[in-house]
């Protein structure tokens, strides 16, 4: 298929939500994957500029007959002078000199994050992965707290998560043998926190309520050393297929993918009678994601559908999301054996985070928030204290922001009251310390 025709087909599928940018551009049917990926991303970034130039040049009217039965590229080249002239006019009107200054500041001033690599301990060890990169010329640096000066061809161990490695920004590992074999997983640091905090024990039963695409699910499996049972629920059949593919690639053997809504699951169903851990990562605004490719698609959809992007629409969306998030937490509380429930979002909005936590805590006498010592105590950025009446509640929550060199995230951990009362200050649940010791010995 013609390269540009294939690109147009991908854009059409993106607008119809028939796949992600990565899944469509890296598909087997795409021969020039890197070139296609770059073209799609740049097209979406400049979509407003492109549309204005096409409209102002009246290209579609002038070439109406030719475009119906001829190559698009030839039509573009035939009108190159006119199109370039419209670009110049647009820059003059916008009072900018560079093409880059025409695009949204969200993309122009985007934060550049390190490349995080989670070592899949089901298949390899941190030591072996580091040695592999060293053979490729990477240098292991011991300075792990300062990420602003990370240079090329360096690799670092993460300070908080010992199965996580840090490589320079924009390091492309999609064709790397360790990635293709499932020995490493490309996962942002912030999204590694939920499974790490959930910390399911060996041989335990776990529910991942909104599981696709499966990175957190495979992380749970690795923590459990492929023992016990994980039920992974998702409503989206295609995304669930992706979860099955990715978790199989990761060597996970304790996962059962279930097509359906977690909210439809009967907490008293005998199959889930031993479920002690539940991971909740429900739909959210995604406002914390830096350089999120989905944002390009969302913007593309909004223009195509002429969606209402007003503040009222945003407020309504957050209200609907927060109500769903509240509902899913309350449903998790109903599982009789559940003793540890982790809730996370990739949102920076208090409406989806602290305010949801406030509401659900008022509706339960069975669960409360785990103490800070059980929720990555070495992590400094905690919940927003102004959203609560006391600082003590906020410090039990975790927040991350792009200035922490990762995506914006929120994590809360609920534990059953009875266990908290029995153990008081020294919880016997698996904690971050236990996992740290386990990883150190691998």
Notable features of this structure?
alpha/beta, 13 strands, 442 residues, 3 domains, NSUN5_RCM1_N, RNA-binding, five-stranded mixed beta sheet, Rossmann fold, S-adenosyl-L-methionine, Alpha-Beta Plaits, eight-stranded mixed beta sheet
Write up what this structure looks like.
It is a single chain. By secondary structure, this protein is α/β, with parallel strands linked by helices. The chain has 3 domains: 3-104, no CATH class; 115-186, Alpha-Beta Plaits, CATH 3.30.70; 190-440, Vaccinia Virus protein VP39 (Rossmann fold). Helix content is 41%, strand content 14%. The chain has 20 helices and 13 strands. Strands 6, 7, 8, 9, 10, 11, 12 and 13 form an 8-stranded mixed beta sheet that branches. A 5-stranded mixed beta sheet has the order 2-3-4-1-5. Helix 16 crosses helix 17. The protein is globular, with a radius of gyration of 24 Å. The N and C termini lie far apart (48 Å).
